[in-house]
Design goal:
Blueprint (H helix, E strand, L loop, with lengths): L1 H8 L17 H6 L8 H9 L7 E9 L5 E9 L6 E2 L2 E2 L2 H13 L3 E10 L8 E7 H8 L10 H11 L8
Parallel strand pairs: 2-5
Antiparallel strand pairs: 1-2, 3-4, 5-6
Helix pairs in contact: 4-6
């Protein structure tokens, strides 16, 4: 009897299982935060927080330019380990490019995404690299508007699968 009363008085919380990552992306959370407006700060921040980053790179804030078109999103990153972003002896923005493509799909009215990476490795502290992508470039490279991909989970998964075949060098 005491056990039954104890269970009723202190029920176990119901836990909702989060969907597993798909190629490193939390598709369900990305779709939950899809937004029409880059000015929706809380959704934009949630989207950025759900994108994968290389080990040794972390977010360092965002800036929104919403006064006139094209609307811009600038994402600041701090790099603690340059090796994680190196490809063929040069700093690579490939993952940032892929993440930007997803953001163009998930934020309907953003026209420009700037990724600013500050070197905080101790070797070149304060030096920054900027990777700027436009909706026009992305849509042109993919041959279509990327926004429809984020209408549902299968579409977003299809876009994520296409990312692996895209290179910043092809722009």
């Amino acid at each position: 009897m005491i056990l039954i009363i104890g269970c009723i008085a202190n029920p176990k919380p119901v836990q909702t299982a989060s969907q597993p990552l798909y190629s490193g992306y939390a598709v369900d959370r990305l779709l939950e935060n899809r937004t029409m407006y880059v000015g929706d700060n809380s959704k934009v921040v949630a989207l950025i927080n759900d994108l994968p980053l290389p080990a040794g790179v972390e977010g360092a804030g965002i800036e929104l330019k919403t006064g006139s078109q094209p609307y811009e999103l600038t994402i600041h990153y701090s790099m603690k380990d340059a090796a994680v972003m190196m490809k063929d002896g040069a700093l690579s923005g490939e993952l940032l490019y892929w993440n930007s493509i997803l953001l163009f799909s998930l934020i309907d009215n953003v026209g420009i995404i700037n990724n600013v990476v500050a070197d905080n490795t101790g070797e070149y502290d304060g030096v920054t690299a900027t990777y700027t992508f436009t909706r026009q470039q992305v849509d042109q490279q993919l041959g279509e508007d990327v926004r429809p991909y984020s209408k549902n989970e299968p579409g977003l998964r299809q876009l994520i699968d296409r990312l692996k075949s895209l290179s910043v060098l092809d722009l």
